[in-house]
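Need residues for this backbone.
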């Protein structure tokens, strides 16, 4: 049975997953229990991000057992951001809640997160794992630093940007594009898309029950590179010339002024050579760098103008989704 497209569905629960076969049945049963208790109309969208275990078979069985569960399967592993992005395209509910598949996020938090969006009018609520059950050294300390710097740069007062448990108004997830590894910065993406009412809620965090974490050390390096690029793209993505052009002009101007001074010196004081003076080479280099930056700006403009703006993922199968 297919659920017809409707504007009256209360809730969509989006779960990205990679090799989480053990926890899926338990997770879905728990979600169903909570949403049924509160009489929400809902859908659960499970996005299999290229699992190599039996996750997809488990999803197929779950979909057969409950038509409100839908599945999307990627051809290969594209990452959590791609999975969330694809899930967001498919959601129909007025409120959208994302959660990890590993049962570290508790479905008991759903009603609270739902009410903050539906009743209190928030655009987005980010979970805050105030008490974490992860390894202190490899996760908690770097994560504090990461959150502190993201808070400073983005000026969004959240404690825990990267919490998997979040809730949104539907229009928020339809407006943002979670690409690369930007799932860490969804609140920032939402803010840049123009949504101001972003809040947080302390949520229960649990120990991973099955399987292992999918993110290693490289997540910190990637995290900071992504933060740099998100700040750049959100500010200059549509107008790269304003960035490159400005810096290019400064370089060119400095070089040009230096060379004019040198030439004037050469004219007024005959006998002082040009090619044997270091400032001459510095000014030439500065002018060349300036022109290069200018050209980068032009190229950036061309690319920005012609970019399709959407990522395309190869999807192998879908259940119950047009
Ligand atoms: N995940 C995913 N694709 C990936 C990596 C992770 O869909 O490439 C899912 C994973 O299955 C889980 C969630 O993202 O549902 C969070 O991952 P994990 O629990 O490994 O992260 P941690 O809690 O250790 O930060
Ligand atoms: Mg986890």
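Answer:
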């Amino acid at each position: 049975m297919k659920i017809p497209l409707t504007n009256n569905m209360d809730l969509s629960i989006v779960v990205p997953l990679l090799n989480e076969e053990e926890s899926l049945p338990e997770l879905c049963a728990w979600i169903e229990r909570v949403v049924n208790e509160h009489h929400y109309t809902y859908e659960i969208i499970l996005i299999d991000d290229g699992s190599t275990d039996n996750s997809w078979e488990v999803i197929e069985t779950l979909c057969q057992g409950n038509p409100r569960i839908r599945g999307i399967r990627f051809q290969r592993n594209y990452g959590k951001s791609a999975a969330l992005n694809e899930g967001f395209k498919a959601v129909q509910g007025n409120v959208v809640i994302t959660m990890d598949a590993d049962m570290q996020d508790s479905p008991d938090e759903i009603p609270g997160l739902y009410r903050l969006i539906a009743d209190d009018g928030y655009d987005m609520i980010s979970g805050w794992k105030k008490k974490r059950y992860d390894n202190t050294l490899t996760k908690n300390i770097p994560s504090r630093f990461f959150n502190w710097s993201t808070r400073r740069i983005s000026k969004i007062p959240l404690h825990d940007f990267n919490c998997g448990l979040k809730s949104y108004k539907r229009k928020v997830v339809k407006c943002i594009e979670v690409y690369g590894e930007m799932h860490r910065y969804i609140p920032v993406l939402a803010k840049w898309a123009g949504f101001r009412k972003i809040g947080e809620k302390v949520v229960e965090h649990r120990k991973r029950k099955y399987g292992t974490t999918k993110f290693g050390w490289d997540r910190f390096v990637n995290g900071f590179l992504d933060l740099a690029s998100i700040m750049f793209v959100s500010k200059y993505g549509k107008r790269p010339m304003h960035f490159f052009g400005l810096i290019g002009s400064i370089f060119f101007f400095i070089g040009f002024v230096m060379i004019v001074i040198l030439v004037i010196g050469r004219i007024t004081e005959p006998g002082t050579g040009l090619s044997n003076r270091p400032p001459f080479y510095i000014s030439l280099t500065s002018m060349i760098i300036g022109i290069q930056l200018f050209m980068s700006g032009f190229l950036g403009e061309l690319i920005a103008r012609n970019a399709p703006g959407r990522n395309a993922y190869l999807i192998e199968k879908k259940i119950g989704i047009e």
